[in-house]
Write a structure and sequence with these properties.
globular; 203 residues; single chain; alpha+beta; 4 helices
């Protein structure tokens, strides 16, 4: 993921970051465009291993009945961030309150208060997920942030948001299992080895 170069006409009011981000999405269908900390970032469409991780990781959430009743399990929905006047992020996966539709803020993005968990699967932009989004999601008070770090072969679970980070940051390696906090709505256990293997290209 990289910061996008922004050009404005010489006369008139400069285009807002949000307008620029939306223009970039129109010009590059399938790309993910976000504004974090007042900086536009653009990521290309995810590869097949990235998609496989999301398929694998959705199953335990759905099996725990988190996609029915009080919560939903959704991919690629926008979260309006408090870190800037036009900031927003699009987590790869989220567990949200079932009344999500009542909390639309702007630009197809929803109030972070309805997000119980945000999850990212890293790609070439792994530093964004491991650094910038840690700060952004903590400031948005997202209770649980999970990162499937394909670059380093680990799973991070961050809880207890405070200020510009999380008070608890646990790292899990292949061979371990991750039990997520009950605050997401039900007990969920993830197999780290399964997720890391799914995130590698097949021979």
């Amino acid at each position: 993921m990289s910061a996008a170069a922004v050009e404005h006409p010489c006369d008139g009011e400069p285009e807002s970051l949000l307008d620029t981000a939306n223009s970039l999405m129109e010009q590059h269908p399938g790309y993910r465009v976000e504004i974090i900390g007042g900086v536009i970032t653009v990521a290309p469409s995810p590869d097949a291993p990235h998609a496989r991780v999301l398929t694998k990781i959705m199953r335990p959430f759905i099996n725990a009945d988190l996609d029915d009743g009080e919560t939903e399990v959704l991919q690629g929905i926008g979260m309006w961030l408090p870190s800037g006047p036009e900031d927003y992020a699009i987590p790869d996966l989220a567990v949200v309150d079932a009344d999500l539709d009542e909390h639309l803020v702007e630009n197809n993005c929803y109030d972070p208060a309805v997000f119980r968990l945000a999850l990212e699967v890293t790609s070439s932009n792994y530093n964004n997920d491991l650094r910038n989004k840690v700060v952004a999601y903590a400031e948005a008070k997202i209770p649980v942030y999970v990162i499937v770090d394909r670059k380093h072969g680990r799973v991070h679970v961050l809880t207890e948001p405070m200020g510009g980070g999380y008070d608890s940051h646990e790292v899990y390696a292949p061979g371990q299992t991750v039990t997520l906090p009950d605050s997401i709505g039900a007990p969920v256990t993830l197999d780290v080895d399964e997720l890391i293997r799914a995130g590698r290209p097949r021979a």
